[in-house]
Backbone:
């Protein structure tokens, strides 16, 4: 007789990411007939994530650690491993993490420690007999891959497709809450020296707002203006491969198939044509605002908002408005 696969959601501390409501609702829909385990980490003394009522039986593990201060994968992996043991999840399991760089790093790090498999960043997950089947976009969202595994432990980050959760047909059930103080030994903080960075803009990794420029920016002066706008918005600045090759932006800020993958809430692009190689580096879930003088630019097919205009006419006005708004707020 096949053993039912346990399903659990592994949540890093709330300060490390967005609220996981959508992930929890999707996991609850998948867990019909079995108990869903939610493993929520936090530092001791920090406010616990409020347990969420879901349309399935749920065990909510409020897991604290007295010395947890750094929310990186090196610190979280030993805590998740101890929590998995405490929750009794070393049976056939599906372990789900929130989307984003931290969730992906934790899933990839836990998989070999559990002798399991990571399915990566998924937009849909289903259980078909002994198999876990995950769907994930590729090539800038033009292709959907299906990955299937019968591994004892399957892990994935899951950003459910669609802007709204499926309607709830079952009544909501208050979770059974368990409070546990974890004792796993955390690695020491790495020794580091602080050097003054020439690039003080926020990093692309994990950015919720990205301002990006393409070949159409025509030079460093255009990117200086984009940098002003990004600074006013608190956004990360990125560029396409041609802009990196031209030396207008550093290689660390290249977005695309051969550069960084970004998953911001909003991706504001200027002068980016939208080639498949570039769009492969932008999450299919990101809302795209595109400015380009060419009305036939491919990026408009992906954009939620498109503006056909010369950036020289539009961006100075935008920069002035943002700076004026910041000055008014500061008064």
Residues:
């Amino acid at each position: 007789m096949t053993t039912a696969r346990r399903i659990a959601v592994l949540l890093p501390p709330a300060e490390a990411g967005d609220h996981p409501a959508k992930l929890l609702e999707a996991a609850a829909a998948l867990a019909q007939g079995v108990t869903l385990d939610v493993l929520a980490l936090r530092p001791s003394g920090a406010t616990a994530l409020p347990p969420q009522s879901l349309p399935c039986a749920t065990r909510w593990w409020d897991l604290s650690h007295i010395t947890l201060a750094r929310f990186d994968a090196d610190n979280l992996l030993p805590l998740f491993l101890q929590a998995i043991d405490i929750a009794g999840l070393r049976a056939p399991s599906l372990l789900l993490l929130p989307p984003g760089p931290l969730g992906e790093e934790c899933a990839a790090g836990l998989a070999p420690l559990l002798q399991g498999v990571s399915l990566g960043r998924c937009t849909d997950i289903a259980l078909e007999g002994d198999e876990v089947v995950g769907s994930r976009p590729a090539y800038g969202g033009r292709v959907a891959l299906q990955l299937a595994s019968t591994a004892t432990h399957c892990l994935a980050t899951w950003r459910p497709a669609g802007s709204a959760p499926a309607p709830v047909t079952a009544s909501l059930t208050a979770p059974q809450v368990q409070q546990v103080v974890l004792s796993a030994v955390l690695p020491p903080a790495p020794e580091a020296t602080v050097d003054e960075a020439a690039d003080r803009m926020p990093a692309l990794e994990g950015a919720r707002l990205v301002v990006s420029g393409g070949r159409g920016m025509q030079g460093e002066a255009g990117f200086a203006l984009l940098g002003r706008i990004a600074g006013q918005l608190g956004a990360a600045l990125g560029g396409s491969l041609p802009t990196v090759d031209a030396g207008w932006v550093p290689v660390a800020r290249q977005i695309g198939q051969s550069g960084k993958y970004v998953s911001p809430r909003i991706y504001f692009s200027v002068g980016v044509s939208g080639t498949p190689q570039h769009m492969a580096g932008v999450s299919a879930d990101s809302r795209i605002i595109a400015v380009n003088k060419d009305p036939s630019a491919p990026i408009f097919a992906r954009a939620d908002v498109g503006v056909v205009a010369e950036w020289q006419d539009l961006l100075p006005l935008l920069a002035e408005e943002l700076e004026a708004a910041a000055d008014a707020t500061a008064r």
Q: What stands out?
A: The mean pLDDT is 90. The radius of gyration is 22 Å. The longest helix spans residues 311-330.
